[in-house]
């Protein structure tokens, strides 16, 4: 009686699959080698009676990069990726709003200049005669109290008028615009200006308390953390500066590519805005680092002085700072406050009010001087933060650069919203 053919006892050979070549358009990941453990059940292998076992490994498809995860299967993400998603994507809408309002605030003066003819001045290169402008305002409003006279809200350019802030006898505050070259009043205004509204919206969200300021400036920490975690997540990021987005792929794909590309080119700007925002947060929470103003002898507010006295204050300032570009004269706001004559003098990248001479409004004596060149490094930084944050240190040229990168930063937030929305929708579909 013929015996039944014996089944081979040898274990099936486990074959290593070769890398699967994928179309270049899809750029699928290929594995160099796969080690596949044999399944416990033998039903996946085909056996032939009367011969040695011949193993036929099953075809193992490689998952697509953008394929959704299997339902119920957790996807392990690097910690840097999770932090980037937490601090960046989930706050993208609010961050984009703050970036957009800050971008508009940067050129708010120029936007006003386009639509308000009374703000357009002419410059013939001569030094502004502040005593003559003071007299012009007094002749127009003889009973008004002049609080300040200077550049149009820190717009230190020749194509803007000068502005005098006055208070009428009935308590109404008004602004008087003066063309320093033609020495004429070009117009008047009152109430909130466009640049004031945009700045308040950017700083305080138009709310009357201090906590919105801390909320807005705390986004500086978010920017710095997003920058660091983004670089940690994006392996070999230096190769991506000239990598164009894949526009013909899915929305999630091109939005991610664009997000990385814009983020790389905006690294310096994100760092700058993030650090200055953190500084604003710390500056408000900590004690003031600026040198206190010297106190004047007077204990009462003087009426508007004569133009001759203003000329004397200007002369005293020019004696201390030769060839200084005067940017403003500020009268005392409270008891014992001095008169402040401020301007730009041999210091770059500082506020327009950094260099200043403090005058006693009663005796007309100089009681203090603040020289930007002699400030401590920390106090010098206090006066550098604003020009760096708003980019107004180089006139309209640097403002336009800041506007461009401000829009790119706003676009980063927009692509972050798209990425987060697509990822959330994909996760919801996977759970169903």
The chain-level structural class is alpha+beta
Q: What value does the Rg take, in angstroms?
A: 34 Å
Average pLDDT confidence is: 80
Estimated share of beta-strand residues: 5-15%
Give the ordered list of helices and strands: HHHHEEEEHHHHHHEEEEHH
Biggest sheet strand order reads: 4-3-2-1-5-6-7-8
Number of strands: 8
- The total number of structural domains is 2
Overall form: elongated
- The termini sit apart by 60 Å
Helical residue percent band: 40-55%
Low-confidence region ranges: 8-60
Question: Count of DSSP helices?
Answer: 12
Task: Give the biggest sheet.
Answer: 8 strands, antiparallel
How does this model look, in words?
This protein is α+β, with helices and mostly antiparallel strands and 432 residues long. The protein has 2 domains: 1-62, no CATH class; 80-291 and 390-420, no CATH class. The chain has helices at 79-87, 92-106, 108-115, 130-140, 194-204, 211-217, 219-233, 251-265, 267-285, 307-320, 377-390, 396-431; strands at residues 145-151, 162-167, 173-179, 184-189, 325-330, 339-344, 355-359, 366-370. The chain has an 8-stranded antiparallel beta sheet, covered by helices on one side. A hairpin with a 6-residue loop joins strand 7 and strand 8 (366-370). Helix 2 (92-106) runs antiparallel to helix 12 (396-431) and helix 9 crosses helix 11 (377-390). The longest helix is centred in the last third of the chain and has 36 residues, at 396-431. It is elongated, with a radius of gyration of 34 Å. The two termini are 60 Å apart. Residues 8-60 have low confidence and may be disordered.
